[in-house]
Amino acid sequence: MLNRRAFSAALLSTVAAPAAIRAQAQTISDFRSQAMGLSQLHAIMVQRGNDILVAEAPRGPGLDRAANIKSCSKSIVALLTGAAISQGAIAGVNATLGSVAPGIIPQDATAGVADLTIEDLVTLRAGLEGTSGGNYGSWVNSGDWVAFALRRPMIARPGQRMIYSTGSTHVLGAALATATGESLLEQARTVLGGPLGIEIPAWTRDPQGFYMGGNEMALTPRAMLRIAVLMRDSGRFEGRQVIPSDWMRASVQPRTRSPYSGLSYGYGWFLSDSGFVIARGYGGQIIAAHPEHALAVAITSDPNVPARSDGHFGQLMDLLEGAALALT
To answer: Which DSSP category does 46 fall into?
Structure first.
């Protein structure tokens, strides 16, 4: 038999449970309302633990059709880098471009590029003038994207400050393809596609046939969410270690800082002070994970409209740092 104290505790728990459920439902409703108010947002998915709390696509192609993830591609290439190192195709992050893929370096390359390390490239600290922003058009219209990037003037010491450049990640992708003997598409499908059960369609290639490293990959929001879960769970997915745990730990160590958003940057992933690990793409494409709070988030937005830190991207960060964390 229950004594009076135990009976009272049991009674209170039955009263509190519905209240907690109602509070959680209200928190989810508040999150959804805030997200739906963002005019550039196409789709958003949030998973806590094994439960998908939010799956909405008020605009755009929906949750099951591939969307251009833009520069979130850089974070995918970073994961493939870790896999290539674990497989022995590349000796390590200190391996130089000249030792990994000497054949992709043009004869008239900027002095010192052969000594760039894999770490310099994956952290966007190659020191070379960027090919993004105002230089992007001339870069993608050139006859050799790798050579163009490696002929940029050296404007900083390699390994020092972040210079945001899709060209640096494209060089890294070409080096991965050369070292492994597999295209980035093949690597992505083998390393991530199969283990995560996601489809990775072919994307843009350069004039030499290298798949673009750092832009133009396409994934469905559901596939993006699975990558977010992979990041949240230290490289594991459904009990399988997909990306080596030592690479995952190294990836989330701050190596530099974005001069634009102020976010720290590890091996291809942005890092917020609150603990979010973030892939960010033009227009407001986001793959985000918060290991401490068991959160995984996938967001797609209009890929044709900028999402600056003081605009849509800032609003998305407010959503993550505020309403998303409140879900836990």
So the answer is: E
